[in-house]
Amino acid sequence: MTESGQKITFDDGQLNVPDQPIIPFIEGDGIGPDIWAASVRVFDAAVEKSYDGQKRIVWKEILAGEKANEETGEWLPQDSVDAISDYLVAIKGPLTTPVGGGIRSLNVSLRQLLDLYACVRPVKWIRGVPSPVKSPEKLDIVIFRENTEDVYAGIEWIGGSEEAERIREFINSNFNKSIRENSGIGIKPISPFGTKRLIRKAVDYAIAHNRGTVTLMHKGNIMKFTEGSFRDWGYDLAAEEFGDSVISEEALWEKHDGQVPEGRLVMRDRIADSMFQQILLRSDEYEVIATPNLNGDYISDAAAAQVGGLGMAPGANMGDSVSMFEATHGTAPKYADQDKVNPSSVILSGVMMLEHLGWQEAADSILRAMEATIQQKKVTYDLARQMDGATKLATSAYADTIISNI
Ligand code: NAP
């Protein structure tokens, strides 16, 4: 099957996508096989229909998680990591986090091994999806979460360990601090390199998609030299690299009386805790958000809840040339092999992937068809239980209905 396809390549910052690109996929564990089987049929139908058979994705299965462990004895075979790095674009279902065995999380390992430093999460309501807020249509944001640094870097030691005690004593005796005995210790590194490449990606995206603002979400009022520096480096980057296209909020008011000059987008910053109120109370004032790892983890899921929850939330992990698109929920093992759960998170991740390939027509056709399906109240159990008069469909039947609406 894969012999007929070609590799996507990356030259001079540009992705070159042939008409029959080979794209590796990881089916995923638990509910993964059900939602992948449904999603891939939707992708193929949309591509076939949008390009009259001129384009086609040549899928290449790669192994990770339980299936990999059963077949190869490894949770994350090197071949799979190499394939993603080689083919540049991949898509995956959810993976089990192995208990014990030295791997913290397969998803985190993949992000680190492939240096996928930006977790990109668009959050936009699809008409008809049940939401806990009055005006879910007002939220239309894209979150860029830094993926490699912060307290999530995995640099931490259990309280009372030799390492933790040595660090505690070093800090207490050299810097006049008083960390308590037996404290667990974690390190929060945030670098100008890691910060600037993340914010550069967010600004590039905002420019390419005609978004008006990039908001740096941080807790720099308290953590001045990590999160505060994230903010400062963001403004430095804007001045150094985007002088013609970005204006800071401060300059906007000082020099332009709050009127955005033609062709500029505004960079501003907001404190993380207030952002959780802002996205609820003033949802339409935010467009692109760039933030360190921990804030990004929290705000991504909080925002997803506003538009229908994780079953509807797509995501991607992106590096300079490699991108991996993925469901944002887990493996929901209690629903495995029941043809029951909502495949929309993987389908919408595929929509992001098609946009990334430049196959906008196919991406748009899936979005329209999903919206039509939800308008017809033909949905999986998770949405059906929140909607009056809904027809509850199996995963596969929901995919069939989307396909018939394409
Ligand atoms: P989970 O798998 O996301 O499931 C939690 C609940 O969310 C489910 O019981 C279900 O709610 C709902 N849900 C999740 N996916 C859904 C879907 N597609 N359609 C409808 N409802 C859905 O979280 P978990 O049980 O905490 O984690 C299970 C495993 O997944 C763990 O091993 C975890 O480490 C892993 N995980 C992987 C990823 C990833 O691969 N990116 C992310 C998170 C977790 P109801 O019971 O209310 O129906």
Structural class: alpha/beta
Share of residues in strands: 15-25%
Rg from Cα = 22 Å
Counting H and I runs of at least 4 residues, what is the number of helices?
A: 14
Number of strands: 17
* Strand line-up across the major sheet: 4-3-5-15-14-6-7-13-10-12-11
Largest beta-sheet details: 11 strands, mixed
Give the overall shape, derived from the CA principal axes. globular
Ligand catalogue:
NADP nicotinamide-adenine-dinucleotide phosphate
Mean pLDDT: 95
Low-confidence stretches: none
Residues in helix, %: 40-55%
The N- and C-terminal alpha carbons lie at a distance of 25 Å
Question: What does this entry show, briefly?
Answer:
By secondary structure, this protein is an alpha/beta fold. It is built from 14 helices and 17 strands.
Structure overview:
- By secondary structure, the chain is of the alpha/beta class.
- The protein is built from 14 helices and 17 strands.
- The chain has an eleven-stranded mixed beta sheet, sandwiched between helices. A two-stranded antiparallel ribbon has the order 1-2.
- Helix 13 links the parallel strand 16 and strand 17.
- The longest helix is centred in the N-terminal third of the chain and has 19 residues.
- The protein starts with 8 loop residues before the first strand and ends with a helix.
- The mean pLDDT is 95.
